[in-house]
Please model this.
Amino acid sequence: MTHDTVLVLKRRLAQLGRGLALALVLIWSVGPITMIVVAAFTPEKEIFSVTKSAGWQPTLENFVMLWAKWGDFFTGLLNSLIVTLGATLLAVVVSTLAGFGYSRWQSRLMASSAFSMIALRLLPPIVTTLPLFPIVNAFGLNDTYLVLILLYAAFFVSMGTMVMRTFIDQIPRELDEAAMVDGATSLQILHRVILPLCGQGMIAVAIFVIVYAWNEFLFAFIFTTKFAKTAPLVMSEMVGSLDGVEWGVVFAATTVQLLPVLIFVVLCQRHLIEGLTAGATKG
Amino acid sequence: MAEARLPSQNPRAGVPFVLPALAMLAAMILVPGVYVLWLSFHASSFGQSPTYVGFANYAKILADPYFWRALKNTVIVVLTVVHVELLLGLGVALLFANGLPFRKLLIACVLAPYAVSEVGAVVMWRTMFDPDAGLVTRLLLSLGLTPLEWSVVPMHGLILVSLLSIWLHLPFTFIILYAARLSIPKDLYEAAELDGATAWQSFRRITLPLLMPAILIAMLFRYIFAYRLFSEVWLLTGGGPARQTEVVAIYLYLEAFRYNNFGTATATGWLMVLTSLVLALVYLRKLYREMLARDA
Model:
């Protein structure tokens, strides 16, 4: 073999290796999701049958069963939607205010409060449930949207603030100063100068809160029992059902709960990556 | 950074803007956290007034074999999950950084698990590993390998928990490393190539050292977050069989909400806080220097 053919062979092998690695990465990432979605459209009897019948006939029967038997699940979806919207709104507003504050005013006091914000977020959420449980009960907040909204927003405010500060830092201060010369107050600067220019950051923060609040299990499991039950909690009840799990229905529910947020994440990919690099790892 | 300040501005004027965020964190995280510390030195259960017991709760946990079992399981799972995730994340980041066709679509695929809830992930993975008809089980059998008996053998249960945890969180690790890899200037690699460096040499001398800060940050964050592991275990094995797959968060939950040992649960909680802080110490020190040096 000449030197050239060895080189060509080497390059081909490298290409093949990369193609193979890529295929594995794809199977790993999307395989489990695809399997569940396909199973959701498969008749319950055939999902677990080892001898597959010829040809796959998609059916909606699992979704019809889900609708008929688990009205709870659809209430759960509605609850999830309300809690997600509430938490997102709260977290974005509070983070934008704080991000503006930390970006434009720097002092020892501000820096140490920003630092304690980040440090606080490292506290494991399950630890806060212990004292909150009796307090929440005492205030009659158990099983309400409000307690979930407050908790979800609180656990994302420090990261949201850091993301917003990074984005607001990029807005030239000359713009603030120009507005100040015109006699604008800080609040007016935020409203007229900053807000129109920090949409990217707000979207990034919103994505994190939306994905988290829509999927969260632990807090919903501890603080809701009936009225405010979110979709993931109802799904866990389906799986844990004592009188036999109807897997077809579970797969249908998993698909319904997953698809909106999956499409959202895919569409907002760029903002997600920007947000994570802008400050997710700082807070 | 004097020029950072707006002219003629009162430095206190920024406080109202950050106050709502701080108030929320104080109410939902700080106060409960401190209250847990206080409770951990008291004996109490729901509806009873607490009495001071010193370190008795801590002594009780440290003498409880279930706690040690839970701690051991947590350490095994966290070490496995975080390190496998970093290796995989690094591999995928490098694969993608070399330029690929349909890059956006492929990245969307890698990010997909980020959108999946813990409940959804548990449904997926237990279905694939279903002892009778799971796809992976059948694949393993046809290859002549033994499938995972995750509901019977504790170690198998922990393996499945680790697998699905890695699957759920790989997108996070990937993004951090991928963004860091993209920020390495191209000319470094071009210069190395001109000097006749092999692919391995440019990885060792350029990629790895320049990625190190991002690798450390990703590792730290994943340590802290993996340590909280609750839902995956709860939904997959519930800590069973015979409490053998419990992790620390499950132990805490059961102590508080099933066995009504509020004192030991709060003590477990504080041990979790302390270990989280120790894990985060390096990070917090670096952050503290950066943030407070800015104004010095």
Remarks:
- Residues 1-5 of chain B have pLDDT under 50 and may be disordered.
- Residues 63-293 of chain B form a domain with the MetI-like fold fold (CATH 1.10.3720.10).
- Chain B has twelve helices and two strands.
